Every structure is written in C-alpha cells, then in structure tokens.
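REQUEST
  id: r-88c1
  op: predict_structure
  target: BTAD domain-containing putative transcriptional regulator
  payload:
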Amino acid sequence: MEGGPRVPEQRRPGAPGEPDGSAALRFGVLGPVRAWRGEEALATGSPQQRALLAALLLREGRTATAAELIDALWGEEPPSQALAALRTYASRLRKILDPGVLVSESGGYAVRGLGEGALDLAVAQDLATEAEKARTAGDLCHAREVLRGALARWDGEVLAGVPGPYAEAQRVRLEEWRLQLLETCLDMDLEQGCHAEAVSELTALTAAHPLRERLRELLMLALYRSGRQAEALAVYADTRRLLADELGVDPRPGLQDLQQRILRADPGLAETSAPAPESAPSPVRPAQLPATVPDFTGRASFVRELSDVLSSASGAGEANGGRVMAVSALAGIGGVGKTTLAVHVAHQARAAFPDGQLYVDLQGAGARAAEPETVLGAFLRALGTADSAIPDSLEERAALYRSVLDGRRVLVLLDNARDAAQVRPLLPGTEGCAALVTARVRMVDLAGAHLVDLDVMSPEEALALFTKIVGEERVASEREAALDVVGACGFLPLAIRIAASRLAARRTWTVSVLAAKLADERRRLDELQAGDLAVKATFELGYGQLERAQARAFRLLGLADGPDISLAAAAAVLDLPVDDTEDLLESLVDTSLLESAAPGRYRFHDLVRLYARACAERDEHPPSERGAALSRLLDFYLATAAGVYAIERPGDRLVDHLEATRYPGLRFTAGPAALDWLYTESSALLACVRQAAGTERLRRAVDLLWAARDLAESGANSRQYETTAVAVREATRAAGDTRAEGRARIALTGFLLVSGRIRQASEEARLAMERATAAADPTAASWAAQDRGLIALHQHRYADGKMFFDRAIEGFREARNGLCEATALCNLSRAYMGMGNTSKAIEFAQNGLAVHVRVGSTMRLANGHYALGVAFATAGRHIDALAQFSQALTIFVDHRQRLWAGTTHFRIAETHLKAHRPGPAAQHAEQALALGCIGGDQMRGNVLKLLGHALSALGEVDRGRACWHEALNLYEANGSPEADTVRTLLEPATAA
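RESPONSE
  id: r-88c1
  status: 200
  body:
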C-alpha cells in the first residue's frame, strides 16, 4: 500500500481562503469528476472542463503550466484555439468554486487551500496508510475494516467520461492501486481464517481480471483452506493455460510454488496468523474456566500429580520442553469432587497456557450427553472462528479445531464425560496444549491419557473442609460431632459442602444438632453405603432442609428432560408467577442443589436431577401432580411456539387446528424476539417433545413438533429435530393414534424434504396422507397433499404434482388458510413450469404472491417472490426474475433462513448464467455453497454443476471440471439421474 498515489496537501477547515460561514468544498475523482458545496452538488461543466479540474486536483497543489494542461486535455493534436479554450474553462471553474481555490500563477493554474478530507482520493490514501500501520502493528481486524473503507471511496470508473491522455493514464494508475488494495485486503481475510467468505469475491475478481496472478494465488489458497483442493489445483491449470495462450509465458514462481505445496498438502498452508473474528481487535483468548472454590481443601497429592502432567505440555518440564499434548482423565463417583479438583488445578496452571482455557460440561451422566460436533462448534466460536467458517460434519469440525489450536498453548477442561468416544474429537492433538477430563468411568481406552482414580476424602481432609465452611470456633468445641457429620456424608465433598453450608447459614444450630439429624437413618437412603446411593444420601441432607415450596420446586423441576430450563418454563412447571419462581430458584442455587447456567436459565447437575426425580416419586402428593407439571411445561412450549409460528406466518390457520392448551405461553410483538426464543429453547423444547412421547400428552407433543418446524427448515438443530420426529412417529404407531401419526409423519416429511432425502420423504408423505384421511383430519391431509406435490416435482412427475397441489389448495381454501393457499399456488406454478406452460406458471406465481401480500405474511412472502422469480427466469425474463429473487433474499436473511437464502443465491446464479453473465453466476453460486441449500447433497450437486458451467465460460476450464467431479460424486452417492448429465460434461470430447 506504500505505493499509493500522492494527492495535494490539504489544509484544516477555517484556513485562509475559505469564505467565513460557507459550506466546505468537496471533490470526487474516484468515479465521475464531481464537486459539492456542503451537500449541494455543483455543475462541473463540459467533459474538457472536468478534465481540467481533474488535472489540477491530481497535481498535488503544484502549478501546471498552460502547455502541460493543453497536453493533458488534448494530447499531441490540440485544437487551434486550445489556449483560449483552456482560459474559458478556468474562468468558468472560478465562478463555481470558492474564491482563492483556483489560482493563476506564472502563466498556469493551481488548486490551493482545500479543506481536510475535501478530495475522495486523499481520504482513500489516508485510510490506506492507516490500514498499513494497523497491519504492521498486528491489528488485522482494524486494518481490514479501514482498508474496506478506503475501497468504498471508489464509485465506478475513475474519471468516468473525462477525455484526454492524462485522464486515461490516471485511470490506469488508480485502477491498479485499487486492485493492489483489494489484494491486500483479501490477503488479510485469508490471514484471519475467512477463506470461505473470500472465495466468492475472488471468483468474481479473477473473472474480471483473468491475467492477474496475485488474485489467482489468493483464490487457490482460499479454495484449499475451504477443503476444495481439486478446485485449487484446477485454478492453477487454468492460469497456466491462459498465460500461455494470451502472453506466451509460464506462471510466476510464487504461483508454481503454491501449486507444489498444495499437491504436498503442506501443513503450513492451513495456518492463519490471526483466526479471530472480524470484530475482534486481537486473537481471541478464551477464559472459560468456572470459578475455583475459595475453600478448596486437601487433595495435595492429586494436585501435584496433575500439575506435573500439565507442565509436560506447558513447557515447564525440562525433559521434553513442552513438546507433548498432555491428557489427564479423572474418574470417580458423582459428588466425589472431580470437577472441583480439575478446576482448581486448571486455575493454577493458567499462566502456562497463555492462549486461553476452554471448558464444557459434557453431561455424560445424563440421558442426553452433549454431542461432540455441538461442543466443537462452541469451541471454534470461542476461539474466534466465524459461524460461516464452521463446517457441518464432526470430522471437519475436529480437523478445523486442531488446526486453529496449532501453535497455541490452550488448556481444555472436558467435564463430566460419558466415554472416550465422546472425548476423542475434543482433544487438541497439538503440542503445547493439554486436556483435563472428568468422568464417572475410567477411560482405559483413551490412548495416551494419564488416568487418575479419585476416591472420597480422607477423614482429616473431610473435617478440614467442613471446618473451613462452618468456622473453626464452632467445630473446635464439637470435634467428635463434626466427625460424625462428615462420616454420615460418606466423606463425599459435595455432601460435606451441602451439610456445612446449611449449618453455617443457621447460627442457632450446633454441630451436634446437625450430627443428630444425620444419625437418623430415616433421613438417609437405606442404601447409603452402595455406589451412587452415597450421592443420593448426601443430597437427602440438603433436600431435608428445604422449605415446603423449595422442596416442591426441587422435585418438580427435576422431572423435565431438557439440558436446562428458562425461568418462564420453570414458572409453568411450578404453576407460579415468574417473580415467585425466581425467588425459589435462586434460593435453590444458594443451596447448591441447582445451578444458574446463565441469567434467567437454570440446570441441575445430572446426579442431582436423578435424586430430585426420586424425591418426586416418593414425596409428591398426589402423584398425578408429576404428570400435571410436565403437562403445564408442554402447554407452555406449545402455546409459545404457536405464537412464534403465527408471527412468522400471519394468515396461516394451522395454529387454530393444534391441540388446545390450558397453560399460556409467552407473547411476542416482534419477529426477532420470537425467533430468539425458538432457537434458544430448541434443545429444551425438543427434549419436552421426546419426553411426552408414549404418554397421554402425545398429541400435544406432535403438534409442538409441527409448530416448531422452523428448527428443521432453517438448518438449525436438524439432527435433534430428526431424532425427535422419528421417536414421536414411533410412539404414535405404538399408541395406535392415527391422527397423531399422520401429523408426526408430516413433521418428519418436512425435515426429509429440507435435507433432500426424497425417497424417504415420499413414503412418509404417502402414509401421512393415508393416516390423515383415515382420521378425518383435513388440516393434515392438506399438508400431506402439499408435501406429496413437492415430492412429485422433485421426481419430475409434474401432472401428479398438479393433482396434489390442486387438492391442497382446495383444502386450504375450505379451511380459510390464506398463507398455505398462497404457498400451494406458488408450488402449482412450478408444476406448470414442468409441463411447459410458462404463462400459467407466471399467472399462478403472481396469484400466490398476491395472496401472500393480502394476508400480510412476513417470512413466507419471500417464498412468493422466490416462486415468481423462478417463473420469470423460466420464461427468459431475467431482469424481472432477479428483482424477485433480490426481494426474497432480503426477507430470508432477515428471518435467519440460511438454507433458503442459499437456495435463492443458487437461483440468482442460474439466472445470471442463462443471461450469459458467468462472473456474477459464479459469485452467487459460491455464496450458495457457503450457506447450504434446501435439498441437501442433491442441491449441492446442482450448485456445483452450475458453478462448473460458469467457471468454464470464464475460461477456468480445469476448475470447472473439478466442480463437476465433485458434483458427480454427490449425484452417484445419492443415486441421482443427474450423474449421467455430468459424466457427459466430463467426457474429453465434450470438454474440448
């Protein structure tokens, strides 16, 4: 960036020469030559007059002689009256500009006394200089932001419409500088790990500047880091052929070296200097360790042992110099203090891991252990990876995680693991990092792990912990009673802490009083001495001290299956006002029987939850209250999800045909808040659906799954949604509930369609229609007809599709469901397209869009614009199609419909390609690949096939063929007939 153009010196506002009280002059040359006084645009005259102004503005404030200016405006053949014309232009400019700005001097002219920031080129140069300084200082985020600001100063072609050789030379110079700035900016994008985002922009730039090798080099690196090695190598092949054909030369050595490094899969190519997100000023250093307890007691031998292992990775160990990835796995029964010990050791070792500490509760002892891919997603975000750069599969996430940690010294604490299989993908795998794992089982199959078996405390340690909490004075006078207390607690640290905390909070109690309570075996579980029962006996002490309302809350909240619970959902379980619920929950947090996961969210330790459920089975009277509590929770989720559905889909009468609820839900007035709730509650909501399967609450569970279909359609929580839908479907079959089974199959069909599993969707939709018809459920029957129509479109059975859509439209009209009718009309448009009736396709798409507008739909309005865009594109009305797609895309993005947004980018790319604009087509296809599309791997294959065509049209034949090869693999794996089409494209004769 140091080679940027120089511009005239600028003075500060208020300097001599500016009229008092006047608005400042501003000029633009990075586009058409323009001038403004404040916000008022000034007339800059004829092209030759603008050429004179531009020549003076770009002359650094120096005087240009008349001869120099004539040469600049007209070159070697000026008109006979060139000098007179020059003086006329200067005179006219003086009348436009402020006094003293255009001066005559030594037979020439100069522009002097401009205010700071008066020329767009000067501003761009200042920003470029600032960006260079920030980059040198290592602040890439700021450098990128500032440099993008500099590039934003360009407004089309430099000196647009200005004649003369001088203007032409400046155009070339300033365009070259702009490209240099772009390359610098894209280089920093790659340094920060934003390679996936950069591919789209680089694809468009290389199409516009095919002989610019630096852009080709950046594109190869971006593709390689995006996992697209074949395409990266194809870019090199295209470049070599193009350079040979056009210039008769080979690629420069740097490009050749990059190709060889890609062929070797050089690990250095995966490195990025600053994988922080764009908004971060410096590399992210997570500090996720929970707070260590101030009264940590004993465990000295374990602390030394674990610290020694950590030092082998941190560099403190002299024997290895910190060249290993150390793993320690702590095993023991629940409540034995594994987490407390691990957190304490981790805090002591923080200084040895300056690049951060990661923490996660893997919930291994619960029914729904954390999925490794979910944890990896959270870790990658904590390490600064952008959402758009996080891949979908477990293997790709684990590989990216290890790459991001390479060269860093990070400590990872994996708490409460289920087994070694859950842990393995979460291990850093690089030297200098370390992992601490806690679990109830010994991980003998975790290769290379240092295993530690953590037993209960010794009597001395247990008494020391009890004394620290209760106070030396109270324990010293009743030492024997204190030993009785810790003995009754089974020497389990968690039990001791609960007992001691209760005593410390009750100043009127003595230690003997507490010991007497614990000595009463009726207050402890009979099986205190056996395994996990010791944990339950420990919790019995804390539970026995609760007030009636607290105990009820403890029991009932433990019944819910979700990983955590919100305050509003807890209020539904307890059937209490939110304020009263919060008081109860916070009091339970104080007893350590409940944890505050985040403001307004609460969770049980998994073993505490089991104990709470045992208490509910034993103590809740009448027993029916357990089912009633879960029924209220289901009602809360169903009522709230139905409200979210109604906000997102005004005019859709589905909510009128869902199971009735007795307990109310939350009410939202704005779409963003409603969607925030749905996605935040997704795991707990789906857990509630699964828990209700097989109970009398089954129908409401099915309807909740249906009302929460956005979780599947948006691409969020897809795996959980599918698992839940399958479980609910099986429950409806076992129950023999035909109506519920039909609706459950509709929910599953919707997910299968989104993921592109058409054959499975076809069977589910067929059975859904059968069950809905048998159950006389017209709402479900209409939805099933809609789904069967969509499946027919995928299978190119357009007449069948029309039949199903006609049936769906009839049903929706009878139900006065305007939104679903609009959707079906738009889908009917696609059937007519398939049958070759383009005019009918446009007519029905327009009708569907009109209904969308009439009913006031928000997110679904995008589907109307999308459908009309597809119809226009089919009819060859490309401009109209792009206008509709643009409107659809804006709405999909606003409503977080990532997969629909990607699908719309694909349609935009398709339209550009049909209009013979391969550059924009390739750019939008890349964005579709980055976002994903409705239709899973089949649609990804379609995008890659289209991208291959666009790249081939741009002369990048080898990269295009690489896309076709990848598309062929997807089609073959999916059994798609499109595979034959791609094989034809890849035939040597066709390629030539």
